[in-house]
Structure formats: C-alpha cells, structure tokens
Amino acid sequence: MADLKRILLVEDNANDVELTLIALEENNLANQVMVVRDGAEALDYLYARGAYLGRQSELPIVVFLDIKLPKIDGLEVLKTMKSDPQLKLIPVVMITSSNEQQDLMTSYGSGANAYVVKPIKFEDFVSTVKELGLFWAVINSTLPIKKTE
C-alpha cells in the first residue's frame, strides 16, 4: 500500500472530520489526508497559493468535498475544479448531509464523480467512509496529476 496517494478532505464540521480520519486510518487507506475547513482554503491548496504556496506539486488522488462550506461553497469549488484543465481530472466525491434533489443534480451536472449523503448513525458513517476510501484511493485507477508551473 506504499503507492497510496493523498486525499483532500474539504469539511467544516469537526466531528465529521474526526470520524472520516478515523475511518480512513483504520484501514491505512491513504498516505496522507489533507484537511481543509472551507472552500477558499480548498482552492488555495489546489492552486498552491496562500498558506500552501510552495507545497509539492502532486495533487490529491481524490477530493472528498462537502457542499455547505464557509467562504466558498462546495459546489463552487467543484465548478472551479472542473473548469480548470489541470484540476478537472481529479475525482470529486460530494460527501454531504444534503439530500436535496437540486444539490444532487447540480453536483453531477458540474462534474462530480459521486454524491454520497452522510449517514446519521456513527457505524454507518464510518463504514461508508471506509468504502469510499477503499474505492477511490485503492481500487479506482487514476492518472498521476501534477500541477504545472
């Protein structure tokens, strides 16, 4: 499992961050999970600007993205990523508490690779994240994506 890459988790809820990290770490599903707390920070990370200026050029293997975020919402982050030739190939999984049909349609219409409604029960949440991590970080074949200068 040494070939596993970085997962970018964009989530503002501290409890959901903790549960997600526990679920991913239990099965060693990623070398590193980078956590950012809002949409603006996610874009700063992806574009290696602001606090992330000078970070290594390798981009995450997958982005787990909440919809309801401070500063810039997840749908705007998704649209920005999918309109950028260097970021559009990164799989984006919307992980959200929203089961609104409009959010689902907008997410897929904007290029999301998956849409997952967060389960309410602790065990179900952990199980879902483990399965997502296993699929997107291990089973799914992805392209190595590096940010060009």
Output mean pLDDT.
85
Instruction: Note the overall shape.
Output: globular
Please give the radius of gyration in angstroms.
14 Å
How many E strands?
Answer: 5
Counting helices, strands and paired strands, the structural category is: alpha/beta
Order of helices and strands: EHEHEHEHEH
Name the quaternary structure: single chain
List the uncertain runs.
Answer: none
Helical element count?
5
Largest sheet: 5 strands, parallel
Strand order of the largest sheet: 2-1-3-4-5
Strand content range: 15-25%
| Helix coverage percent | 25-40%
N-end to C-end Cα span = 29 Å
Structural features, described:
This protein has 149 residues and is an alpha/beta fold. It contains five helices and five strands. The chain has helices at 14-26, 39-46, 74-82, 101-109, 122-139, and strands spanning 6-10, 32-36, 62-65, 92-96, 114-117. It has a five-stranded parallel sheet, sandwiched between helices. Helix 1 packs across helix 5 (122-139). The longest helix is centred in the last third of the chain and has 18 residues, at 122-139. 31% of the residues are buried.
